[in-house]
Amino acid sequence: MVRALMAGEPWAAAAVWNAHAPKVFRIVARVLGPGADAEDVTQEVFVRVFSRVSGLRDPDALGSFVYSVTVRLLKWELRRRRVRRILQLSDTAELPEQAVAPVDSEAREALGRLYAILDTLSADDRTAFVLRHMEGMSLPEIAEATGISLATVKRRLSRATERVSSEVEKDMSLAAYCMRGEARDDS
């Protein structure tokens, strides 16, 4: 597959897109949060993947390569957004309809408050939290995707989880909503 991709075979690019784009899109949408233009960022991930695939040393690591490109681009995008926010060039975004549809207004509000909490995390901590708790990736998978050690993943995840838990506990309605979600997940 990688050789065909490096040779510019259209079918190979389509196969890589079909295999990885849905997960990349979910990760992008969850890390960037509401109002994010996840489709554009996802496309940019694959533009970078296709242009840099020639540097891939292990053809069996294509999936890890795609996710590491995704994580690097997301970190850059989060930094860019923070700078824009500091300079007051961006407005607060509304939750897009498709991000949580079809759900009730309570769910929309809870998701908005959760993303506000995630927005207080560093790009590294937020990425680790989203990959683990929203994407369900294992710790070794996160380490591989982010290019950091397992110990660093654990530290970032611990810091992020502690911060999110602390903030959720301060918001009784959000805490209650999250508890209802956990009860549904357990059944």
From TrEMBL:
Signal peptide, first to last residue: none
Query: What domain of life is recorded for the organism?
Result: Bacteria
Q: Which InterPro entries is this protein grouped with?
A: RNA_pol_sigma-70-like, RNA_pol_sigma-70_dom, RNA_pol_sigma70_r2, RNA_pol_sigma70_r4_t2, RNA_pol_sigma_r2, RNA_pol_sigma_r3/r4-like, WH-like_DNA-bd_sf
In terms of CDD domains, this protein maps to: Sigma70_r4
Indicate the segments forming the RNA polymerase sigma-70 region domain, all copies: 18-82
Q: Which UniProt keywords apply?
A: DNA-binding, Sigma factor, Transcription, Transcription regulation
* One GO process term, biological-process aspect: DNA-templated transcription initiation
The protein's matches in Pfam families, at most eight in alphabetical order, are given as: Sigma70_r2 (PF04542), Sigma70_r4_2 (PF08281)
Domain (RNA polymerase sigma factor 70 region 4 type): give its ranges.
Answer: 112-160
Entry keyword NADP: no
The record's listing under Gene3D superfamilies reads: 1.10.1740.10, Winged helix-like DNA-binding domain superfamily/Winged helix DNA-binding domain (1.10.10.10)
Q: Which GO terms describe its molecular function?
A: DNA binding; sigma factor activity
Q: Does the keyword Transcription regulation apply?
A: yes
PANTHER family given for it? RNA POLYMERASE ECF-TYPE SIGMA FACTO, RNA POLYMERASE SIGMA FACTOR HI_1459-RELATED
Could you say which protein family the record assigns here? Belongs to the sigma-70 factor family. ECF subfamily.
Query: Can you say what this protein is called?
Result: RNA polymerase subunit sigma
Origin species: Sorangium cellulosum (Polyangium cellulosum)
